[in-house]
Amino acid sequence: MAVSGTGYSIGPLLEVLGGPRPAPAMHPGQVGHARALLTQPDVTIASIARLLGVSRATIYKYVPQLKSGGDRQAIAAPRHVPNSPPKIEPRHSPFKSAR
Fold this sequence. Notes:
Blueprint: H1 11-17, H2 28-38, H3 45-52, H4 56-62
Helix pairs in contact: 2-3
């Protein structure tokens, strides 16, 4: 792949850097869905993984409390999700609205 108008190729650079990062395996909505399902004692991690189209290992990665054998009822509370975008609070304008 050449950079337009420069004669340089970024192909070797991408090889060194490993290329672009892959998308996260689960988006925050899926993590929330998995957490909600985990509160039900009859639902298995394997069934949640099948439902969401990910591996069991991915469920364990995105819900790390499962590794420590934590209470499944407490897991439903949202925690930090790897690779999730930060929450952005709306900014209020210091100017009065022109209504």
